[in-house]
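@here heads up, posting the sequence + SMILES for the magnesium ion run so it's all in one place. Ping me if the SMILES looks off, I pulled it from an old spreadsheet.
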Amino acid sequence: MRRERHRTLKAVSSTIGDLGEFGLIARLTARFPHTDDVILGPGDDAAVVRAPDRRVVATTDMLVEGRHFRRDWSGPRDVGHKAAAQNLADVAAMGARPTALLLGLAAPADLPTRWVEEFGDGLQAECAVAGAAVVGGDTVRSDSLTVSITALGDLRGGRAVRRDGAAPGDVVAVAGDLGLSAAGLALLRAGRAEREDACLAAHRRPAPPYAAGPRAAELGATAMLDVSDGLVQDLGHIAAASAVRVALRRGALRVPPALAEAVGLLNRIGATGRDPVDFMLAGGEDHALAATFPPDVALPAEWTVIGRIDEGEGVALDGAPAEAAGWDHFS
Ligand SMILES: Nc1ncnc2c1ncn2[C@@H]1O[C@H](COP(=O)(O)OP(=O)(O)O)[C@@H](O)[C@H]1O
Ligand SMILES: Cc1ncc(C[n+]2csc(CCOP(=O)(O)OP(=O)(O)O)c2C)c(N)n1
Ligand SMILES: [Mg+2]
Ligand SMILES: [Mg+2]
Ligand SMILES: [Mg+2]
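bot reply: prediction finished. Complex structure tokens:
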């Protein structure tokens, strides 16, 4: 009895160092079921994934502890969800359906086994939302914790929606939430995350509108991207690639009630002097989709029109050049 108890306690407090590399890999991969796209999953030198379209959409993004997440601000499941979402959103932003994901994990040996298990569960849960499977990865010991994901997608015979197709006269529209994640981060920074709300949830677990990506391609979207660094900064990439001006209307950005409430609190405690719309324009980590469409396209309700494409360059807000106050890892 006493030995049992001892073993249970040890299991609860075990680290990935106790498991060893292959024990850890087994613990992780047991959580990743196959989908119909998977011909061969983890365990061999490489995975084999179906590509019915014969064109493969491929993208990669890293999450670095301290820079993209903090373990005292986000739980392991949150980090798993976010690591998957950040990558699967890029696949959707091409107009593709995510099929597979590869997980690179660099972690210190004293990382609790439980942390990796829950991270794996979060990763798998987000993949399931998008219809993708985790098919492989790599595991190394490191002084710091880094998650590096590669995601694959299938275009199902549709067009890849690039950043360079926007034309004057097109409308600019957004699907998904803007500003909530940045407000959640500001609440965490201000030490005011005691009450769970939509902003904290959006920051910890972004919820990209995956299916809107392929649907936008079918509707005839001329350009599209996911908003990761901030709306204005990211739309600047469409403006530059398409050699057009993105003209936004501030009044078209409808402030979600949770954002208004969070920014109200932040302003009352002096943590920010900003308007909620500024969070929508410059926030970052929204993983909403922003796209341009020809003006005659009837857009379903998941899209909100926020501006139009003009001749010219850059991003304008109500006629004046907009400040691109988004995220840059090196400035
Ligand atoms: N280290 C790198 N090597 C090669 N390509 C890169 C590297 N970093 C970024 N890129 C490419 O530059 C483009 C912009 O990157 P990024 O801003 O990270 O895109 P996103 O916000 O969609 O993740 C992408 O096409 C990406 O693949
Ligand atoms: C501890 C912490 N500090 C700051 C941030 C905010 N932040 C980190 S990266 C980032 C931008 C998006 O990440 P990036 O690596 O640029 O993704 P990509 O554009 O490549 O999709 C933001 C807003 C955060 N999430 N966590
Ligand atoms: Mg990237
Ligand atoms: Mg992107
Ligand atoms: Mg970025």
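MO: Residues 61, 67-70, 86, 185, 228-229, 284-285, 327, 329 surround thiamine diphosphate (ligand 2) (CB under 6 Å).
MO: One more: The longest helix spans residues 76-93.
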